[in-house]
């Protein structure tokens, strides 16, 4: 089968031929119908060779959708022909967090060598992908896999962090989304769907601000120093009740800290390496600063339900499997609007 693999540290990924996997007991083989491409892959491919944590070559792609092609023994809840998406942050399945569906916060996964598809084990940027357990699949029925697959990360990550901040998102509150790209424009829709907050989107690119407005933002502003005064004006001087930074570089984290209000949430979601100073009098009184990682299995099920009723729709650009390396170059250059999705059969 064909697959997009990261083969050598510091070199671009390539499309290569690799053997198709076969499912063992408890495993499921999916024929990939769609696979999302994520900025975090660029971060992985930017790590130095010294201390690189994954074995190479690595088939990329941690957002996966597919049709069940074959199942191993002792698989009971999915069958050949079912259309599903993959829950990506795999855990041990036995600890307290995993029992709650919070495999994204499994404290044992790293020590046990358990990795998500595309982030340590073969991912979905291929014609087929092997899934370790049926609990890591969520049925999507007749939903379009191309539209649905980004929900497994670009939807699940913002949904998880928004749900954590819901007590701050009361009627009359203001939520600020920094970065209206692949995750940010989905966050805008989710904030409108599950909260009563007024939504302000910030981005340096005009086309992303336009996407944010189409996604339901009440306001879309340039993410520069002027945004601080604008948010203060929109909130009567109080500041935002919750800020969601989907960029995470130092400049945006600093911006978030200047516009967050008292007794509010500052959520650093992007992996740009920015750091927020936390201490008495460094941020408004009562500010809670948090990071996040992916989301729970139950939240992915909820997201699929939201998509089914039309409450969230991801803006996607569709590409073929052979275009995979080019997609990463386009992403690096900032030329992807919304989310890129690879469709192997195209």
Report on the structure:
The protein is α/β, with parallel strands linked by helices and 346 residues long. The chain folds into two domains: 2-152 and 295-343, Alpha-Beta Complex (Quinone Oxidoreductase, Chain A, domain 1), CATH 3.90.180.10; 156-291, 3-Layer(aba) Sandwich (Rossmann fold). It has eleven helices and 16 strands. The protein has helices at 39-45, 96-99, 109-112, 145-148, 156-164, 184-194, 206-214, 226-234, 250-259, 297-308, 324-332, and strands at residues 2-6, 14-17, 28-37, 58-59, 63-71, 83-86, 128-131, 137-139, 174-178, 198-202, 219-221, 240-245, 260-268, 288-291, 316-320, 339-343. Strands 3, 5, 6, 7, 8, 15 and 16 form a seven-stranded mixed beta sheet that branches. A six-stranded parallel beta sheet has the order 11-10-9-12-13-14, sandwiched between helices. α7 links the parallel β10 (198-202) and β11 (219-221). α8 runs parallel beside α9 (250-259). The longest helix is centred in the C-terminal third of the chain and has 12 residues, at 297-308. The relative contact order is 0.16. The mean pLDDT is 96.
**CATH architecture title of the largest domain:** Alpha-Beta Complex
Q: Level of helix content? A: 25-40%
**Backbone CA Rg:** 20 Å
Write down the CATH topology of the largest domain: Quinone Oxidoreductase, Chain A, domain 1
Annotated CATH homologous superfamily of the largest domain: Medium-chain alcohol dehydrogenases, catalytic domain
Q: Catalogue the unreliable spans.
A: none
Mean pLDDT metric: 96
CATH class of the largest domain: Alpha Beta
| Number of helices, where a helix is a run of at least 4 consecutive DSSP H or I residues | 11
> Which structural class should the secondary elements be placed in?
alpha/beta
Number of self-contained structural domains = 2
Which geometry do the CA atoms define? Answer: globular
User: How many strand units?
Assistant: 16
Rounded to the nearest angstrom, the distance between the terminal CA atoms is 15 Å
Q: Tell me about the biggest sheet?
A: 7 strands, mixed
Strand residue content: 15-25%
The SSE order reads EEEHEEEHHEEHHEHEHEHEHEEHEHE
């Amino acid at each position: 089968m064909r697959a997009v693999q990261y083969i050598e540290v510091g070199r671009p990924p390539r499309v290569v031929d690799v053997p198709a996997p076969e499912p063992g007991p408890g495993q499921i083989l999916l024929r990939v119908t769609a696979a999302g491409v994520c900025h975090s892959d660029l971060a992985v491919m930017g790590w130095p060779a010294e201390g690189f944590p994954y074995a190479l070559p690595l088939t990329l792609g941690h957002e996966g959708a597919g049709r069940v092609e074959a199942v191993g023994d002792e698989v009971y809840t999915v069958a050949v022909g079912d259309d599903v998406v993959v829950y990506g942050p795999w855990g041990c399945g036995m600890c307290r967090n995993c029992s709650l569906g919070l495999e994204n916060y499994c404290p044992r996964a790293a020590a046990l060598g358990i990795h998500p598809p595309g982030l340590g084990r073969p991912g979905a940027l291929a014609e087929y992908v092997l899934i370790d357990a049926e609990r890591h699949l969520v049925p999507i029925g007749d939903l379009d896999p191309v539209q649905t697959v980004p929900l497994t990360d670009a939807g699940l990550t913002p949904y998880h962090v928004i749900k954590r901040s819901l007590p701050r998102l009361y009627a009359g509150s203001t939520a600020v989304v920094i970065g209206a790209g692949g995750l940010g424009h989905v966050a805008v829709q989710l904030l409108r769907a599950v909260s009563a907050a007024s939504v302000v989107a910030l981005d340096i690119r005009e086309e992303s601000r336009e996407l944010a407005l189409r996604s339901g933002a009440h306001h879309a502003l340039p993410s520069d120093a002027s945004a601080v005064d604008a948010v203060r004006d929109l909130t009567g001087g109080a500041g935002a009740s919750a800020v969601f930074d989907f960029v995470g570089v130092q400049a945006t984290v600093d911006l978030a800290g200047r516009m967050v209000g008292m007794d509010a949430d500052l959520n650093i979601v992007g992996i740009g390496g920015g750091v927020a100073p936390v201490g008495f009098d460094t941020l408004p009184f009562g500010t809670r600063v948090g990071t996040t990682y992916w989301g729970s299995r139950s939240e992915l099920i909820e997201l699929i339900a939201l998509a089914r009723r039309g409450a969230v729709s991801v803006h996607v650009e569709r590409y073929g499997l052979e275009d995979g390396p080019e997609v990463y170059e386009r992403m690096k250059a900032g030329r992807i609007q919304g989310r890129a999705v690879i469709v192997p059969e195209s």
